[in-house]
Amino acid sequence: MVAMESFTISSGPLVAELMPDLGGRIVSLRLADDPARPLDILVPLVGAPVLPPRWPKAGGYPLAPYSNRIADARLSFRGHVHDLPPHPDAVPHTVHGHSHRKPWTVAERGPDRATLVYEHDGAGEWPWRFMVEQRIALAGARLSVAFTFANRDARPAPAGFGWHPYFPIKGSPRIAFKAGTLWAQRDDNVATGTSERRVPADAPVVLDERGTTLYYGEWAGSCAFETGTGVSVRLSADPVLSHLVLHRPAGIDYICVEPVSHVADGFNLAARGVAGTGTRSLDPGDSLSGTVTMDVGRTA
To answer: Which of 4, 60, 126, 287 qualifies as a FRET site for 203, CA 20 to 30 Å off?
Structure first.
């Protein structure tokens, strides 16, 4: 067993536990306004954590320097193809970047907030140097996670980020939001570069026990749902996080509602001329920033 230190922050009804060494992860978030009936907002980490290259399906973690899959672990960028190590759970693809599998440094810590930083030296899993920072804060019944991703390399570099929370559920949650694009995908969850154009409708997307993964683009930046466990959630994000991933494994009682900057395999799609992928290129010294906020409450 590997011991990893954690610490808590709190404000009003919310208490969060952070574990920097486990990829800068929020390992639990609890609504504790009623001491006799506390509620888990995120799936809590229980017991010894799963160690890299795999990760626990709990809490909420950062996605950087990219979100979701890169097909065949081959990244096309500015006319060059870069071979990346495939992930054992997604072979032959990579998945979710690597920063959530690395220790982060606590740069600042207070009663209701913390700043965590990860710096990559350009070796191993990603051929560019970068820094990513999370500023995690609680204020009343709101959690905010503010990201800054900076290119520390001497070359232009691809850049993407997002947040990957796990929500415990009962039943089949209905996610209400607006988006302009639903990306088509293969059976292995790689986006194909084609999309269905949809007029935003009032009917929410239902995530039932059969399981699904959905990639939305042109997301309006907010969504709302009830977990069925007594919790209501409103999740919002800055415009840089213009894509939304909805994921529920078949027969498992959690969902992931992920604000991200780009679609799965977006860098390769952009290299093929596909528009609207959300991918970015940062010049040396440039940075990209955006914030996710989550307001929570109890349902009747």
So the answer is: 60
Beta-strand relationship, 142-151 and 287-298: antiparallel
2 within domain boundaries: no
267: helix, coil or strand?
A: helix
| Contacting residues for 47 by C-beta, under 8 A, at least 6 apart | none
- For residue 155, count other CB atoms closer than 10 A to its CB: 14
Residue 137 pairs in a beta bridge with 113, 144
- Whole-angstrom distance, CA of residue 231 vs CA of residue 166: 13
* Cα angle for residues 19, 127, 115 (degrees, 5° grid): 25
- 8-state DSSP, 85: P
Whole-number Å distance between alpha carbons of 189 and 68: 9
**Residue at 143: amino acid letter:** L
Q: In 219-255, which positions are buried (b, 16+ CB within 10 angstroms) versus exposed (e)? A: bbbbbebbbbbbbebebbbbebbbbbbbbbeeeebbb
In this structure, what CATH number is given to the domain that contains residue 112? Answer: 2.70.98.10
Distance CA 122, CA 256 (A): 29
Q: In the chain, what percentage of residues exceed pLDDT 90?
A: 90
Domain interval for residue 260: 7-298
β partners of residue 237: 292
Count of structural domains, the chain: 1
Each residue's pLDDT tens digit, 21-68: 999 999 999 999 998 999 999 999 998 888 788 899 999 999 999 999
